[in-house]
Structures are given as structure tokens and as C-alpha cells.
């Protein structure tokens, strides 16, 4: 039982600071400021579900896909860092207008927005995917199939707990809009975009630094 608890805590504690649902909540509010409360709540639920599916896929299938396509983890970090840099740069310059553009294109709730950019890269970015793949690659070999299945269930519970945390933070962060107002939300969005830009560059540099000695 203690090993199951440790697996659950390892997955949850390993992913929580990188997914950072508390820090992402103001940015989620800014990007959905033009939505109705019902649409925002629906998006929060879909982002939580998408996040869970992405993390589950990365943990249990990600390492096999990388081997199949001959892709290394540093390359994943570099590609993910580029995506995060591009999104952060665009958000830094457009602010709240980014949501207005997607709303005008879709003419409605824009269900597709729940995946990009709200799930990827805002909530589950390249760092989260890399950690999930790394955790999934550390499969125990000395356990019986039944014990491995139980440990996998504990890891799955950790991912679902992260997804639930994302939903709670996004769903109940709405009162911030009334306190901050449009200008306050816009400031938070731009500050968060700058942090995302820095994180993208850091992930990109980490991937390059890891890949460079291998290339040589």
C-alpha cells in the first residue's frame, strides 16, 4: 500500500509544479474573458479532460512512440520549447485580443480552443509531457504483472488528480475577473505570457544542452 501511495504522490508531485494549474488560472481567465460563464465552465471541464488524456498518453505510450519514430527526449523538449515560445510571443503582443480573434473565427463557443491553446501548450506544455514520458519510462521490472498493474493504476490516479486540480482552479477562478477587471486581466495575461516565453526558452535550452553532447 505504501508503494502505491508513493507512486501516486510521485506522479502528482512531479507534475503539479510544471502543470501549475494555480498559476495558469489567471491566464485561462484572460483567454476566455469574452466567453459566457457557461462556455467558460465547459471549456474548463474540457481542458481538464484533454489534459488527463495527454498526460496518460505521454506516460503510458510516449516512450514507445519516441522509440518507434527514433525521436529522443531532448528533441521533444526542443520542439515543445519552440511551440511554447511561439505561443508566449504571440500572447505577449496580442493580449486579450487573441481570444477575440478565435471567437470571431469560430462564431461560437469554439470547442477546438479547449485543446489549442488552452490545453496545449497553456496547461500541459512540453515540460509536463517530458516529465510524464520520463515517469512512464521508469517501469519496475522486479514486480509481478498484478503489482505492475496496481502501480499503473496508482500513476493513473495521480494524473486524474492533476486533471481534477486543473478543473477546480480554472472553474472557480472566475471571481478574479470581477476584482481585476479587463485591464487587470490583460496585465496578468501579458505577465504570464512573458513567463511562458521564458519557460519556452529554458526548455529549448535544456533540450539543446542535453542533445549537444550526444551529437558530438
TrEMBL record:
Keyword entries, A-Z: Cell membrane, Membrane, Transmembrane, Transmembrane helix
Matches recorded under InterPro entries: Multi_antbiot-R_MarC
Transmembrane segments: 12-35, 47-69, 148-173, 185-205
Membrane topology category: Multi-pass membrane protein
Compartments in which it is found: Cell membrane
The organism's place on the tree of life at top rank: Bacteria
Coiled coil: none
Pfam families the UniProt entry points to: MarC
Family of this protein: Belongs to the UPF0056 (MarC) family.
PANTHER family, A to Z: UPF0056 MEMBRANE PROTEIN YHCE
Protein name: UPF0056 membrane protein
Organism: Siccirubricoccus soli
